[in-house]
Amino acid sequence: MNLAWSAYRLAAPCLGAILPAARIFVPSRERARWEERLGRTSLPGGADAWIHAASMGEATAVGPLVRELQALAPGSRFLLTATTRDGCERLDALGQPAAVAPLDSPQAAARFFAGVRPRRCLLLETELWPHWLLQARASRVPVAVVSARLSSTSVARYRRLGRGFRGLVSGLAAVLCQSESDLERWRSLGARGEVSAVTGNLKDDGLPTAAPDRGTARRALGLDPERPLLVLGSVRPGEVLVLARAWRRLPAALRESWQVVAVPRHPRASDELRAEAARGGQALAGPTGGKDGAWRWDDRLGTLRGYYGAADVAFVGGSLSPYGGHSPLEPAACGAALLMGPHHASQRDAVRELEAAGALCVAASEAEVAGALERLLGDAEARAVAGRAGRGIVEQRRGAARRTVARLVELGLWAAA
Questions:
Q1: Do 3-206+399-410 and 214-397 come out as alike in CATH topology?
Q2: 58 is annotated as an active-site residue
């Protein structure tokens, strides 16, 4: 038997046995939902489907999926879970019962299945927790992975778990993938061909639509409605310094005609990123506004979508430094012309489509970023063409929830009421 798999199977029950006593060490803000992490969640009458999304990003995909499922079976009951508090808050807004997901121990999984009694389980993206899958198998609950994705790194990590884990993957009732490359990786991990298909990324159905008027959108954010807006979205350590220096390379008249908002990916990195801006010679202002060439700096959670809706040009972070890149589709859906760095492996398919359509420019260095910004900020027609191309790509990608539910119906995993 595989050593890593055996170690995991032995360690998880031990962890599950001591976790109830660990509550006293849990931060106070987490204690209210600690019982849910131990699997102590109940839903009288049971759930027609347990739907799990890891965090806030994946939770945005749950709404379109639930609506499509309800369209076929209006009286259906759901239990929605996420691993993070932010994800749970996003799920709470959908008006369905929501909870923190159980930890992956046999005790927590058994309590959860006994309390919720799901008739099927739909896991989003890459949420493969062995004891969940083992309990589902023991309870004869079919499990489908929807909007499934899998990186080459994840494949290598899962393969180390050997045949025991491969058996769980081969037992999945459906694996409905975001892309052909994801499908190939899932099959290499053991997913059965007859229950695997490409249906698209559910997050695409949750993307916004372009604002009717950007000036109005800017005014609503407390920005100058007359000046175009550059948004530096989801910036991460190592990127603000490059962006600040590239910005300082632009002609002064061009810089003065634009306003800039920078939004860090993680508020905890805000101080580090502010220091980068200072080293790059760029002044910053708070979230209520900036003047005299200062960038507005807004590290509040949940603000980026609003800024993308008002943006004429958007830089998508996590891509100048090797983080894998964040999704360019949200600003594309809003009609912004796009700029990214070269490190976008986790967004490869979307970047390829947008770049081929002329909606996105990839720049690898400070000089290239400055050149791309000068072209985009200085040419209104080029921005408009890029924005229309981006919206077109997004519209082509919508419909994943409909395709996913249709395939679930074909596989006997969902039916009309």
A1: yes
A2: yes
Helix%, strand%, coil% for the chain, nearest 5: 50, 15, 35
Q: Find tokens 């012309």 and name the residue.
A: 337
The mean pLDDT of the chain is 92
For residue 245, CA distances in Å to 179, 276, 299 come to: 37, 10, 21
CATH topology of domain 3-206+399-410: Rossmann fold (3.40.50)
Please identify which of the residues 30, 35, 36, 58 carries the catalytic annotation.
58
Domain 214-397 bears CATH identifier 3.40.50.2000:
yes
Q: Which residues pair with 315 in a beta bridge?
A: 232, 339
The average pLDDT across 202-221 equals 93
The 8-class DSSP code of residue 104 comes to S
Could you report the per-residue pLDDT of 128-140, keeping only the tens digit for each?
999 999 999 999 9
Q: What is the pTM of this model?
A: 0.82
Given a cut of 80, whether residue 19 has pLDDT beyond it is no
pLDDT of 26 strictly over 70: no
pLDDT tens per residue, range 182-204: 999 999 999 999 999 999 999 99
- DSSP letter (8 states) at residue 102: P
Q: Can you give the residue ranges of every domain in the chain?
A: 3-206+399-410, 214-397
CA distances (Å), origin 145, targets 21, 41, 50, 87: 33, 22, 12, 18
Written as six digits, the tokens of 44 are 């009288």
Q: Residue 372 corresponds to which tokens in the numbers above?
A: 């791309």
